[in-house]
Specification:
Blueprint: H1 3-7, H2 31-34, H3 40-45, E1 58-59, E2 63-67, E3 77-81, H4 93-114, E4 118-123, E5 138-143, H5 153-159, H6 176-190
Antiparallel strand pairs: 1-2, 2-3, 3-5, 4-5
Organism: Cesiribacter andamanensis AMV16
GO molecular function: catalytic activity
Motif (Histidine triad motif): 135-139
Length: 200
């Protein structure tokens, strides 16, 4: 299922066996209260739902790795579902494994490109925890000694959100051309083929 098609569906979690959520099962009994599947109107405005193959560095069947539009450090990337979902609790065990595996694969790639084996990983669940975009995403941030005054300063940067745009804080924002160029370079380093979709 294409990302645009899936993002416009209010029942996307029930479109296939691998993405079906069984509301009556004990583990997901309250999933409808935990997760609000956004309306098609919201999904059209969601900045992550608008991401298409030219922005994908790595991808699995249901998830994609993209470069952060406003990186707090070089290599700062995000792992996102290809359909509109807000909460980690809405993922099946299989989807959760796929989500984390893609995050690990992306960290390995970033480690090779940025020559490091140190990373910060973050998932912010709900606004009270600092989630700035109501679409599940995991931050993967390559780290090096001395890259920030204190090792824990990266999280404060994530918390300084004053806008609803994709992680747009008081920090540098990449242009569209820069974002696509960095994506293409990382994809090339991964040995991934260029996407067939036309760049916007």
């Amino acid at each position: 299922m294409g990302i645009k098609e899936s993002c416009l569906s209010t029942s996307v979690l029930g479109t296939s066996e691998s993405t079906k959520v069984k509301i009556n099962s004990p583990r997901t009994k309250s999933v409808s209260s935990i997760l609000r599947i956004a309306s098609p109107l919201y999904a059209m405005k969601c900045p992550f739902c608008s991401k298409t193959p030219p922005y994908f560095i790595l991808e699995s069947r249901q998830f994609a790795a993209i470069y952060n539009l406003s990186p707090i450090l070089p290599g700062h990337s995000l792992i996102i579902p290809k359909w509109h979902v807000e909460s980690l609790f809405a993922l099946t065990d299989q989807q959760l494994a796929e989500f984390m595996q893609l995050g690990r694969d992306m960290a390995r790639l970033l480690g090779e490109v940025f020559r490091t084996d140190a990373f910060d990983w973050a998932i912010q669940e709900k606004e009270a925890a600092g989630q700035s975009v109501p679409h599940l995403h995991m931050h993967v941030v390559p780290r090096r000694i001395g890259d920030l005054p204190q090792p824990g300063d990266w999280y404060q940067a994530l918390e300084k959100s004053t806008s609803g745009d994709i992680d747009t804080y008081h920090r540098f924002r990449l242009s569209e051309a820069q974002l696509l160029e960095l994506t293409a370079r990382l994809r090339q380093a991964a040995g991934s083929p260029l996407p067939s979709a036309k760049q916007p």
